[in-house]
Task: structure prediction
Amino acid sequence: MARAQAGDHQAFAQLYSLHKRRIYSLCLRMVGNIAEAEDLTQEAFLQLHRKIATFRGDSAFSTWLHRLAINVVLMQLRKKGLSLISLDEAMEPTPEEGPGRSFGAPDLTLTGAIDRLALERAVADLPAGYRLIFILHDVEGFEHNEIASMLDCSIGNSKSQLHKARLKLRDALRKHLPQEAQP
Amino acid sequence: MNPAPDHLSCAEFQARLAEMIGSGANVAAHPHIQQCELCRAFLADLEAIAQAARELFPAVEPPDDLWENIETAIKKGK
Result:
């Protein structure tokens, strides 16, 4: 670490080797697109190269780098016009869908029957804002107060967006239930 | 004034859930949930999705040429 901070290129290459998998996977989860994930991973490591001398060791290096990469992704999503509020409004149910389209029915519960690939596909298909909160909370394990601070939104907004994201996923997964289980 | 919460239909209850969760309400203790098997199953589905998410997305390797791109960009920046 000290060598990388002092500008040793080989040491920086070693840091890349150690952390590339985790950072690339994080970017891929957050944006759901391979080409974008590669660009964002590159930008995260370029920022790391510029900022590594400022790392003081107050937190674990991997945590610090993880946060740096999340900020790179968020900055990119904001540039693309991601707005949690506008997404929220866009997700209001249309008259055709109706508010009750996703009712749970006791004989249709998903518990124990969630297909991982179907869930991964459904997550990739989520609108960007919902995917972001779902990944940060349910996959990466951040708390709502941390997400609210990262996304500059209220804790309540983070909680309700997460609920709506799970709701969208449930709707998507129910479409993949075996035919005989369909309502 | 809102009707008593235990008189909510399932449609009304589920439509209000996002707002209730956002406000920090204890949904599991809500009178409707206490009485309604269908909505308990609905919440169990959402919890199952959250549980399954923890198993999602195994870490993957970036392509080999990504480091070359990063190295080139670092050299250009110097």
